[in-house]
Design a protein that fits this description.
mainly alpha; 43 helices; globular
Amino acid sequence: MRASSPAVPEIFRDPQRARENLKRVRPLLDVSEKTLFSLLVQLPDPDGSLDGLDRFTGSTPPEVLKYLSSRRASLHYLLAVFSYSAFLSETLLREPERIVRLHGDASLFRVKTREEMLAEFRAEPGAPLALLKHREYLRIVLRDVLQLASLSEVTLELSALADALVELALEASVAGMSAPPPTAFTVLSLGKLGGNELNYSSDIDLFFLYRSPGHMAGGVTHKEYFGQLAGRITARITASGDEGRVFRVDLRLRPEGRQGEAAHSLDQALAYYRTRAREWELQALVKARHTAGDPALAREFLQEVEPQVYRSGRERIEAQAAALESVRYARRAMDEELRRRKSHALDVKLSPGGIRDIEFLVQCLQRLHGGEDPWLRSSSTLFALQKLADKGWLGAADRAALSKAYHFLRIVEHRLQMDRDRQIHRLPENSGQLDLTARRSGITGVEGEAGRALMKELHQHMHGVSEIYSRVLRGARSAPRAPAAKRGFALETPFSTAESPDYPKLLRMLEERYPELYRTAEQTGERGRRNLERYLLAAAASPGGLGALEESPELIGRAAVLFEQSTFLSEMLIHSPQDIEALRDLPPAAVVAPELPLADFTDVFDKDAPHDPVFEHVAESGAPLAEKMAVLRRHYRRTLLRVEARSILEAVPVFETLEATSRLAEQAIRAAFRCATFGTRPAGEPSSFTVVALGRLGVREFDLASDADLAFFYSPVGGRANEPDPEAGVYWMRATTSLIEILSSHTSEGLLFTVDTRLRPRGREGELVESSRFVDEYFRLRAEPWEAITYMKSRAIAGDMERGTALLTEVQDRIGARFGHGPLAAEQLLDMRHRLEATATPQNFLKVGPGGYYDVDFVLTFLRLREARVFFSSLNSLERLDVVERMGQITARQAAVLREGAIFLRALQHALRLESGRTDNEVPLEGPAAAACLRLAERWFPESLRGRSLAEGVEEVMRDIREVFLQVFQA
């Protein structure tokens, strides 16, 4: 029985020790017992947290304790570290002010990149690498245990940190050499680091590569030089100091393993992998990537070695047996290692059904099929699982089970390792420690029950993985050439499961069974025919799929046009054949009801309604968040397909399509915002919050593959309207992080779109969420000219629209007052425009080059700054042109040139995106690619610009736009 006391609730294993700790802590920390207990009860180890707090308060400067007393969130962070990690607790005890910096660190709520870490580390030259690692671990662990980051984000940041520290070790090692490197040198990573899936206490598998052999002055060979450099890098990373070592380095995956040279030349390494490498060594290269040094050399090596990793043609057949044997050998080796151990504790990595089985199964399937389908090649285990399922090499249920098991096993592995920074994968045999591991892994229960629940869940996951592992590999041995999607085709075709029918055979089958589909297929052009064949195979994977199309032949007829015109839309339909229903009754009239059982919902979609009823329904549903995200993505995808198909089939003006796409994105963001805050808003609404659209979404010209440029502002309300509200800031920061995850995270249904927050005040240096008071002051006093341009195209799109619009009106008034002076505005904007021109490449020439879309945008921004200082709720380029023309700021001819040029450039960009689904497209100005692009884009061109080659049209439009640009700015 646990002792109880009015002052010590039954949350402690040792109540007497807790009382003694409280007696020492309370006089030093001005926090009520109620507040302290409310924080401790949320944590898996209240005893450990209070022990840590006792040690911390006894040796910490008073100003830090005062900070903790006045900011509950920072105290929560401190106690969380003490509850989860003994080794990081020591870091905080040595650097107590670190908790203050963590509380004010905006990157606690977002992913930090390798480049950001490197910039911070370089600003502190001489700091031990291990100290830098532990400081960054504090931030990552907090993001992890406070659920501010997903598993994928945690492993990505741990991997980025390792990359940054290896880069620093390389720089310091080169500085200590007698001469600079004589040729290019790179560090490749494999294993967990190579897959961007690093653990808290992983070895890092490295491989050192230099470009070519040779001799330096003094007779030193390149081999000797880079062997010494590799040794120095390894020594810096593995050496132990006051802070411990940085990482354990494993070099056994390099060519020849332990017997191999420290560094290899490019030709030497390629020759090894082409002639002598064993299958497990080739499999290891599935996760190889650049970590430090010259990225070009790393890319060259990986491109050259890829044909050995992923075999195609006859070599693929021969390599399949070897790849399968390699996986069986690895399983036998793991079993042997487990037998050698004296402990019988469950190992989440090596035991059957553990992490390693999932990783090896995925890598094996990638090697079996990635030679024929490069899309399957991915170093990420979870991403590769999804790709294998998409292509039919794994069933949907198997993918879901493997993904869920992998996620849970990695969480448990992290909780085991983050405590004492030890590379362990075995569950503790002590029942108390097992309970603690369970609670740290998110499993609740009284003493003894949590540990038993953890073991039960682990056994269920690992048993399921073992069953799938055996079944899939057994199937791969017996029928290695038959993906699941094609096996399903046998339900409706006379072809065997091992046979991939050619198109004439498919046509004969369609002619016999589905004559209407046959007529459509026979009339489809060569390009569309290839996509149509792939679509029909995918549709036939569901029983009755082809029969359903026969009942609605107009759907396949419309789809055939898309198959001919757009690779991107073709892939959308092939990936989700049922989405062909989106082509019914264009323009859209009826919504495809959500498949998930959120509730009975039969409302219709009205494209003119201010709110999409499906998004509305999802936002208000009490369903689990994962279920909401799936429906949001599915409905967004289908609606986007409808909008883009209509733009092709009915030649809808391009700005109308961009308006529809923007409206769709806004509605998705509003629904995601309501999902992120569902049931969590503090009572009394202490503050309001606004999501602000910038960039292409700000001007309602959002297109396929556009990032959503967003900023987030909150405003205290009521009597505290002009007071800072730290607690509100913390709440809205968490809500924003959740909103971004809902919008941008990859799921089995894909993602909505990527969110870019770099246009917030102060850019990457700024807070993710800013108060309205700060925003107003910033634009009044400190904003740069480029920020002024950005925020002249801002709109409130979610949250408190009224307060957000009022704030943006004030901001634009501030911008007008600071920058809206004719000559000064012209000078600043011209300087900015010229600097942007210098960044022009073939991929962004339509936007950045002289006469590109930026010229139109800068003209409109300048005219608005100079004279038309009014807030526009709708800001697309054609509407702005109408305003400035009516006000007499430009002539009718100038307006016509800019209007036709804007339509031409947006239409051409839209066509390029429809083809590839990407933004980084180089315009094909000649040859078949140019002709195909012109056929698609010309339907949206102004009448005066049709009937000429693409090269002539681009040259004329950009020349005329630049002429008007110079006239306006020189006036």
